Amino acid sequence: MSFERILIANRGEIACRIARTARRMGISTAAIYSEADEGTPHVRMADRAVCVGPPPSAESYLDIEAVLEAARSTGADAVHPGFGFLSENAEFVEALSGAGITFIGPPPAAIRAMGDKIESRRLASAAGVNTIPGVDRALADVDEAVAVAREIGYPVMLKASAGGGGKGMRIAAGEDEVREGFRGATNEALASFGDGRIFVERYVERPRHIEVQVLGDGHGAVLHLGERECSVQRRHQKVLEEAPSPFVDEGLRARMGVQAVALARAAGYVSAGTVEFIVDPERRFYFLEMNTRLQVEHPVTEAVTGLDLVEWMIRIAAGEALPFTQDDVRMDGWAMEARVYAEDPERDFLPATGRLLRYRPPRAARGSAPEGAAAPGAAADHPAAGVRVDDGVEEGGEVAVWYDPMIAKLVTAGRDRDEALDRLEMALDRYTVRGVTTNLPFLAALARHPAFRAGELSTAFIDEHFPAGFAAARVAPPEPAHLVVVAAWMRREIDRLNAAVGADPGAGDPFDGVDREYVVLVGGGPAGGDDDRGERAHPVSFPRDANGAVEVEHESARVRYRVETDWRPGLDCFEGTLNGTPIAVQVERRGHGFRLAHAGHADLYQVLSLRAAALRAVMPVKRPPDLSRFLLSPMPGLLVRVSVGPGDEVTAGQEVAVVEAMKMENLLRAEQDGTVAAVLAEPGASLAVDQPIVEFEAP
């Protein structure tokens, strides 16, 4: 059995990734798209494409009948769902079966069993899988929740039976928190899943989140492909993943693998799936849930096993048997994955929308390895070595409000964890995105954090190491003087280019008049510095006796650097070496200087001549406008409602407005007591970041 055409029931990067494997296998593809996605990369990659409805996913990508009709009309004999949308919808699988179309994934019974957290706990217990102490039934009311929590012992986790993605979950350390958490989790579960059933289990403090990839065929074979560590999370959403785990030894890997396979067999599982565990500091592990689909982080498993999971999902759905055994599975090397999102980490990770004015992912190696692997494909020291980028966007495209704001998955592989991490750090610094705010600086700061480098991980990693939130200007670059040198070098190259334009060829060397001394002013924010603007001044000079050399004064020391680079004005990324050390820096022109981003650090670097710096020192400081009387929109989005009117008295914490963005409603509250002076935006308005919504009277 083989497939002639596969319909890819998804969008974005995962749709593109599935299409690449299908093309390599000689299988035709069909895409579906909403009206908002017309002309996007995943649509153009497919051999055929069908619009399934308007932008809201409920009216397009989640419309079973529309997707089914797309499969019929394109002549698809199989459907790959990717992840999200209909990938774990048993009714969709049954509808496909009724139409004689193969679902590339597990049978509906397995989806139902594992999609219900209460049922999956029961099944896991019966299969001999370690489960967290708790109850395997829905709680009748809040009083039962309190009684069960007291019996289990605090802290506890209240969880929605139909939950996922961190929704419908609350941690409670006492009776009052159980009561409040039960109501909140129930309401969130009803709103998100239409199912308000809640159960409770003991909360394992500071756990690691480690998952095991399983693969089963229709001939009775079920294998595991090792583990992935997914402990670095924000609000229960994974941020960085890796394979293997730096915490798992061979014995623990074998025990977790045996239980993952046992659960898959008990569920009658066929295709690729993931059994998730939490592991405490003593290496005791407990079943968390099973995802009956391809995981976002599947590329790291592909990189270390050399197996293309999408290919094997297709082959298994076509009736093939796995031609290898558990003993044949090997994990070779190390792989890391960073999820690149359109979001603002300095505004509590609020989602961002807009047009990708510039999009330049780091160079990736493709070729000799399976599609799934982040294969070298180049010399080991080549920038593209061990780098894979899974994306579904392009320059000029839109990050729309209708869908998840993930832009890409950046995957790096190496012979060991240090090499994979080194490549990840450099690739993050080479990743250029303009037009929308992204989490790239935050990812770079995480990858370079000493605790992460040491493998000291838990699901509380971000909360523990970034308790005050994230600000790129507060992140110290590995070598602060390097960025001063880079800024001065680029400014002098611009000055040299300007001097050469229109110069008289007979008037001598036009570069003689270009400054050889500058002052680089770093910052200008609230961090403090050499003057009340908060800037730190660093003199820089270009010696006449050494072409390519820069001398910089930094922390009372004078250091000379040899700069080697092909950078020229207009490039968004400075790549080169400083005294032989490779460096990549993101560059945005800002007047006489630049906003530089490197290794999680980002700040303003103004490069002035000595005369300009002297004059600036005596100029008055322009104070920013006082916006404390305004309620500002923290993100672009739709103003759903305004809960106050002119003349209303409000108290701190009171609801003022609600803004919807990326399918989520964001409640905006008053920061202090006050009186409303004016309402500046009406419900239904499309808001920009920092657009005033309400003005309050001056105190």
Helix-strand blueprint:
Elements: E1 5-8, H1 12-24, E2 28-34, H2 41-45, E3 48-53, H3 64-74, E4 78-80, H4 90-98, E5 102-103, H5 108-115, H6 117-126, H7 142-152, E6 156-164, E7 167-172, H8 175-193, E8 198-202, E9 208-216, E10 222-234, E11 237-243, H9 250-266, E12 271-279, E13 285-291, H10 298-305, H11 309-317, E14 334-341, E15 343-344, E16 350-351, E17 354-355, E18 358-360, E19 387-391, E20 398-399, E21 406-414, H12 417-430, E22 432-434, H13 440-448, H14 450-453, H15 461-465, H16 480-500, E23 517-523, E24 535-541, E25 549-554, E26 557-565, E27 573-578, E28 581-590, E29 593-598, E30 601-609, H17 610-617, E31 630-632, E32 637-642, E33 649-650, E34 655-661, E35 664-669, E36 674-679, E37 686-687, E38 692-696
Parallel strand pairs: 1-2, 1-4, 2-3, 4-5
Antiparallel strand pairs: 6-7, 6-8, 9-10, 9-12, 10-11, 11-14, 12-13, 14-21, 15-16, 17-20, 18-22, 19-21, 23-24, 23-30, 24-25, 25-26, 26-27, 27-28, 28-29, 29-30, 31-38, 32-34, 32-37, 33-36, 34-35, 36-38
Helix pairs in contact: 4-5, 7-8, 12-13
How does this structure look, described?
It is a single chain. The chain has 699 residues and is α+β, with helices and mostly antiparallel strands. It has five domains: 5-104, Rossmann fold, CATH 3.40.50; 136-202, ATP-grasp fold, A domain (Dna Ligase, domain 1, 2-Layer Sandwich), CATH 3.30.1490.20; 208-470, D-amino Acid Aminotransferase, Chain A, domain 1, CATH 3.30.470.20; 480-617, Glycoprotein, Type 4 Pilin; 630-696, RNA polymerase II/Efflux pump adaptor protein, barrel-sandwich hybrid domain (OB fold (Dihydrolipoamide Acetyltransferase, E2P)). It has 17 helices and 38 strands. The protein has an eight-stranded antiparallel sheet, with helices on both faces. Helix 7 crosses helix 8. The radius of gyration is 28 Å and the shape is globular. Mean pLDDT is 89; it is low at 366-379 and 525-532.
